[in-house]
Design goal:
With 220 residues, this protein is an all-alpha fold. It has two domains: 2-120, Helicase, Ruva Protein, domain 3 (Orthogonal Bundle); 129-217, no CATH class. The chain contains ten helices and two strands, in the order ααααααααααββ. The chain has a two-stranded antiparallel ribbon with strand order 1-2. Helix 2 (28-42) runs parallel beside helix 4 (75-95), helix 2 (28-42) packs antiparallel against helix 5 (100-117) and helix 3 (55-68) crosses helix 4. The chain is elongated, with a radius of gyration of 25 Å. The termini are far apart.
């Protein structure tokens, strides 16, 4: 009788363990999200050696997020609440320890890492944003005199960054008069309507790479 009772309890324990494993796997997305956040703040030490954050502190902050974030029986809603609360909580706590000049950089790095994880920003786009591409000899002659050579070279390199930018050079040549209007506008913004036929196929990050500023076509 005792052996049978133990066997029954073991069977129940196995079923319970399977349910626990299934529930645990449901929280994998927030674990991955938190991992990205941790390695993002770990990289801040490359900016200034003073920016050091321990894993113990990070875990403690995450545990507080579990307690204080809005509860929900729906796993999707719960994950969303955890992600939003913890991301904002971490951002605020880290910003308290940063110099004012580094806060915007931290925001940019954090946002970009999350976007790349969601495949909303490709590494190729990100690399071009930072470097402007590899400066090889440009075989394409400038179609107009008013655009600086450096800006034209970057525009040509952007034409080769992914399939979404193919045709940018031809667009610029065909619509150079409209581009000149924006080029001469000191208050031009990336939210303005650009004279580009392929802009509808680009995401927000790609569009901002074409931002016009201070009479220079630069990528930001």
């Amino acid at each position: 009788m005792l052996a049978n009772e133990i066997s029954e309890k073991q069977a129940i324990a196995e079923v319970t363990e399977q349910k626990i494993d299934e529930a645990r796997k449901g929280y994998t997305p927030i674990a991955i999200h938190s991992t990205i956040l941790f390695f993002t703040i770990s990289d801040l030490a490359n900016i200034d050696p003073m920016y050091q954050y321990s894993l113990t502190w990070f875990v403690s902050l995450f545990e507080k997020g579990i307690e204080k974030s809005e509860k929900s029986d729906d796993i999707t809603t719960r994950l969303s609440n955890l992600q939003d609360y913890f991301t904002y909580s971490l951002y605020c706590n880290v910003c308290r320890s940063l110099f004012e000049k580094d806060k915007l950089l931290f925001s940019f790095i954090l946002c970009t890492n999350l976007l790349m994880h969601r495949n909303e920003v490709s590494m190729e786009d990100f690399r071009f944003l930072l470097t402007g591409g590899v400066g090889l000899e440009n075989p394409n002659d400038k179609p107009v005199d008013w655009i600086p050579t450096k800006s034209w070279d970057e525009l040509c390199r952007l034409n080769d960054v992914g399939k979404d930018f193919n045709g940018l050079i031809q667009d610029f040549k065909d619509l150079s008069v409209q581009w000149k209007v924006i080029y001469d506008d000191n208050k031009a913004k990336f939210t303005d309507s650009f004279p580009i036929t392929l802009i509808k196929s680009l995401n927000c990050f790609e569009i901002k790479q074409r931002y016009l500023n201070n009479h220079n076509l630069i990528m930001i």
